[in-house]
TrEMBL record:
Pfam assignment, any one: fn3
Domain Fibronectin type-III: 202-299
Name under which the protein is recorded: ANKF1 protein
Protein's GO biological process: establishment of mitotic spindle orientation; regulation of establishment of bipolar cell polarity
């Protein structure tokens, strides 16, 4: 069969152009040809639908060319070309796991020539080893056959070239001879690579951690040795016995982008031992036991049987809101609507007409009062009115100073943009006339409805954490929303932000800019804040720094400018779970009045957490610019672990109890100088919830 394959190969070679005379010549020829192919593949007009269709047809009609190009690039050890092909084509288009006429796959050639970079690139793309090599003997026999038949072909062509007179046919045979000599050397190199290879060493840094009450996670690194063949897969085994007899289970990992594995479906409170071994073309290497040697699935809540703090809260709040709505349907403010349904319809219609009435429109200038402005942005563009103004509506023209409580109430309303009409019905004009606070809040609801009607959209986005003020007595409440789709709005259009900033004619002096001018000057900073406040942390356990400062009417919390919806923090580890044993150790540390820096026993999860916390505390103190010696009285919050969605959790580091919250006028020794800002606590809570 192999001989027949080689005859077919000879026939194919006879039809092919002359082969390369040496590896370097082959590489040059290959690059020249592949360069020409690249020109052909990209010569279509990308902007034309017909052009794209023709290009797709061309791609699909040449699977052999792309597959052959990949084999050639691997054989010539051209890493750049291999990466280009893997990026340009899908594994299916490349026929990545289809053997060639010699029964080899691209990954086989890479690992038998011990080209680790190309082998890793192929493995990342999903390449497999040939299934024909079921044993070491079958692989050895296959390689020996390839070398023997290539040598035989070289000898035959050599005899023909020596014995024939110089002519065109002889020149063709000389080229075939050079190509076969090159292939003969390749097969010999592959055979030598296989014969000199040995099984891989054990993986390194095999670390075991508790992932939940029913799972553990093992992470590991590649073997250190560079003399063995490329590792193509790993095996994770687990057992309740340190001798791994009997085995409870095993898993083979052949996707090597991330070297970790989570063992699920385990029994809480049971110790599990884990080991990992590596595999290459010579077989499985020795297993490496994890550190610590075993782990017990658990969660910190099992220490005292505590239920999750937020369990059922969302459902309870929805139920409470439903009850409030039901009660308000029978209150006095809804009775006229209930008794006169036709009147209600007319009233609603009239209120909707009021929104689109010519008198209800965006403002061009401010005249000392309280205003609402909505900033919608997409990439570098912003929505403006037909007069090239940021959309602004009036809330109250007699409001000279914005009370913090009114502003915080407005931020809570921003969580209910869809319920504005219902809230307006609950705060009627007759009720608001009895209270100055209700009057202001009713006007806020009217302004929101007006903005929603003028823009034709209900969701106005997130409220910026502080209003924009000027010396003329104007106050702007700013909402921000990023538009990610091609959405159309009423009465507004898109313009580049830079164009708006350069074309706007200021009506104020640089010394005393109006609130609108201040907003326009600082709009990029506000957009950056909005984008950063929506970023999420990657899964893991974090150490957060809680620092508050109080004013007359509010408490503010310290946050980093780059991530204002999260406390100042550093990452402790990628595993967010705190096990029962780790939490028990933390409780013992917290109960000691003068903690002694005694390390837990080696090779335990507690010791690993101890070391991780030491590193994290030093990093966090450097981040917030607090000398380490000043942090000797800091303490860990030991009442609970803060869980966020099961993927992110926090331990809190607190200053001394008297310095957690700094009073007005008090010296604040534990606040960093730059790169941070302080948010009103209620604003931070809304951002953290989002």
């Amino acid at each position: 069969k192999m001989t027949q394959q080689m005859r077919d190969l000879q026939l194919a070679q006879a039809r092919k152009p002359p082969g390369p005379s040496s590896p370097n010549a082959a590489k040059r020829l290959y690059r020249n040809l592949s360069g020409k192919f690249r020109v052909n593949y990209t010569s279509f007009d990308e902007g034309s639908l017909a052009g794209r269709g023709e290009k797709e047809k061309l791609r699909k009609s040449y699977p052999f060319q792309s597959n052959a190009a990949l084999f050639e690039a691997v054989e010539l050890q051209d890493l750049d070309r291999v990466q280009d092909l893997l990026k340009q084509y899908s594994p299916e288009e490349l026929d990545l796991n289809t053997p060639n006429s010699e029964g080899l796959l691209p990954l086989d050639i890479a690992i038998m020539t011990n080209n680790a970079p190309i082998a890793r690139a192929l493995l990342q793309a999903g390449a497999k080893e040939s299934p024909h090599f079921v044993s070491l003997e079958s692989r050895s026999l296959h390689l020996s056959t390839l070398v023997r038949e290539a040598e035989q072909r070289v000898n035959e062509l050599t005899a023909q070239v020596v014995n024939e007179a110089p002519n065109a046919d002889c020149s063709e045979k000389e080229k075939q001879l050079k190509a076969w000599e090159w292939r003969y050397r390749l097969y010999k190199r592959m055979k030598a690579g296989f014969e000199h290879a040995r099984v891989p060493d054990a993986p390194t840094n095999v670390h075991l951690s508790v992932a939940s009450s029913s799972s553990v996670q093992v992470t590991f690194w590649e073997p250190l040795s560079v003399n063995s063949a490329v590792v193509t897969k790993y095996k994770v085994e687990w057992s309740c016995s340190p001798t791994f007899s009997p085995l409870l289970g095993e898993a083979v990992i052949d996707k090597l982008k991330n070297l970790h594995f989570t063992i699920r479906g385990l029994v809480s409170g049971t110790a599990y031992y884990v080991q990992v071994s590596a595999y290459n073309m010579k077989g499985w290497g020795p297993p490496q036991a994890s550190v610590p040697p075993f782990a017990i699935p658990s969660n910190w809540r099992e220490y005292d049987g505590r239920a999750p703090r937020r369990r059922g809260q969302a459902e309870a709040l929805d139920h409470l809101l439903g009850q409030v709505k039901t009660v308000h349907q029978h209150c006095i403010c809804h009775e006229p609507c209930k008794n006169q349904p036709q009147s209600r319809k007319h009233s609603v219609s009239k209120s909707l007409k009021h929104l689109f009435h010519p008198g209800s429109k965006f403002l061009k200038t401010l005249k000392r009062g309280l205003y609402l402005t909505a900033i919608f942005y997409k990439d570098d563009n912003i929505l403006v009115t037909h007069e090239d103004q940021i959309p602004v509506v009036e809330i109250d023209d007699t409001y000279s100073c914005l009370l913090m409580q009114d502003f915080l109430w407005f931020t809570k309303v921003s969580c209910m943009w869809d319920e504005i009409l219902w809230l307006r019905q609950c705060v009627t004009v007759s009720q608001s006339s009895c209270s100055c606070i209700l009057q202001t809040r009713f006007k806020m609801l009217l302004a929101i409805s007006q903005m929603q009607g003028l823009l034709g959209i209900q969701d106005l986005g997130q409220v910026f954490f502080e209003p924009v003020k000027d010396k003329q007595g104007n106050i702007l409440i700013v909402t921000l929303k990023e538009v990610k789709t091609n959405q159309t709005f009423e009465s507004v259009r898109w313009v580049p932000i830079c164009k708006l900033q350069t074309s706007r004619k200021s009506v104020s002096s640089p010394e005393e800019p109006t609130a609108l001018d201040t907003l326009l000057i600082s709009v990029q900073d506000k957009l950056a804040y909005h984008q950063r406040s929506s970023h999420a942390l990657s899964p893991g356990l974090y150490l957060g720094y809680l620092k508050l400062c109080s004013a007359v009417d509010q408490i503010r919390v310290l946050v980093p400018e780059q991530l204002p919806n999260i406390l100042c923090h550093v990452k402790i580890r990628s595993n967010p779970n705190i096990s029962r044993e780790e939490w028990e150790w933390l409780q013992k540390m917290a109960s000691v009045e003068e903690p002694v820096p005694a390390e837990p026993e080696a090779e335990t999860s507690q010791n690993q957490l101890f070391q991780e916390l030491q590193v994290a505390i030093k990093e966090l103190m450097t981040l917030v610019n607090i000398p380490l010696q000043e942090a000797k009285d800091f303490r860990l919050y030991s009442q609970e672990v803060l869980d966020f969605g099961g993927q992110v959790s926090f331990l809190l580091l607190l200053p001394p109890s008297d310095d957690v919250c700094t009073a007005p006028g008090q010296n604040n020794p534990y606040t960093p100088r730059s790169g941070f800002l302080t948010l009103p606590l209620q604003i931070f809570e809304l951002g953290e919830e989002g």
